[in-house]
UniProtKB/TrEMBL annotation:
InterPro entries: DUF6533. The lineage of its organism: Eukaryota, Fungi, Dikarya, Basidiomycota, Agaricomycotina. Residues 18-61 form the DUF6533 domain. Coiled coil: none annotated. Signal peptide: none annotated. Keywords: Membrane, Transmembrane, Transmembrane helix. The chain crosses the membrane at residues 65-87, 99-121, 150-170, 204-224, 230-249. It holds the Pfam family DUF6533. It comes from the Eukaryota. This is DUF6533 domain-containing protein.
């Protein structure tokens, strides 16, 4: 067995371990947030479009071990995550129908671009060279060398979402300029319950992660070997299962009380005392220039 064969087998084993570890991370995320999911998603009496999007994004992606429908499920999970981000961004713009319509049109165009690339690529037959002496692959064809273009519609949409999010965040920063010292204080950045922390984590960080993943996959597909590109696709395939559902759970955990407290509102004097204490300790600098009812994702 020569060095090329050993190197290929090692890379193939590394790819298998990466898929296993990525799937383990997704399952761990589902298990550790199951109680929060039940409390904040399924016990809510109000049914919204976000709940089926949450289910598709969180659990349909877990079925992607079925290789025959892998490509279709990837597109479904990705589009559900992006639809969740559209709802979030729409709430930041006070549910402006123009922004919402613009984003959904952009999402449709993105899915159309992905579909066109996949259809054209499926008609291009590329013979498979043996990766190393004595090794053959269980596949009918390689992806054409220009297959990396499938990431271009995705990265364009993600950059659009990130740009609109940053624009709204900058607008909010300027609108609170009089109190910017407290808004930018280290205490605000490190406090999980502060507006600054929530905006950074859910409105900016998650779209930024998506952009980085897309750009990384374009670079890997163009400049690095085939197996390395498969590793990038592995990370990109599993990340929407976590990013989309985490976005909903984080926001609902920040703005919703637990279900048991909702059932007991007004039943005793202690609840009223706690509510009064909360209002007395409330820092008005933490309140965004966005109606609270709009910023909730449901």
């Amino acid at each position: 067995m020569d060095a090329a064969t050993v190197e290929w087998l090692f890379a193939d084993r590394a790819l298998a371990l990466l898929y296993l570890s990525s799937a383990t991370c997704v399952i761990y995320d589902h298990l550790t947030t199951l109680d929060v999911e039940v409390e904040l998603i399924w016990k809510k009496p109000r049914q919204t479009a976000v709940q089926p999007l949450f289910f598709v994004n969180r659990y349909v992606g877990d079925s992607r071990f079925i290789a025959v429908i892998l490509g279709y499920l990837n597109a479904i999970v990705l589009s559900s995550m992006q639809a969740i981000m559209i709802y979030r961004l729409s709430s930041m713009y006070n549910n402006d129908w123009k922004i919402t319509a613009f984003l959904f049109i952009a999402l449709v165009l993105e899915m159309a671009g992905i579909t066109v690339v996949q259809i054209v690529a499926s008609r291009v037959r590329v013979p498979i060279p043996k990766p190393a002496p004595g090794i053959s692959q269980c596949a009918g064809m390689f992806s054409p060398p220009w297959m990396f273009t499938i990431w271009i519609p995705i990265v364009c949409f993600e950059v659009l979402v990130l740009s609109l999010t940053l624009s709204r965040a900058i607008h909010h920063y300027r609108s609170t300029r009089a109190s910017q010292e407290s808004w930018l204080s280290p205490l605000q950045w490190n406090n999980p319950e502060s507006l600054t922390y929530i905006l950074l984590r859910d409105s900016i960080m998650l779209p930024f992660i998506s952009v980085v993943i897309c750009l990384s996959n374009i670079f890997i597909s163009v400049h690095l070997p085939y197996l390395v590109s498969q590793m990038g696709i592995c990370v990109a395939s599993f990340s929407p299962c976590i990013v989309g559902s985490r976005l909903i759970l984080n926001l609902r955990e920040a703005y919703y009380q637990p279900f048991i407290y909702e059932c007991n509102i007004g039943t005793n004097l202690e609840d009223e005392i706690e509510a009064s204490g909360f209002m007395n300790n409330l820092d008005l600098n933490d309140i965004p220039n966005i109606p609270i009812n709009n910023i909730l994702l449901a």
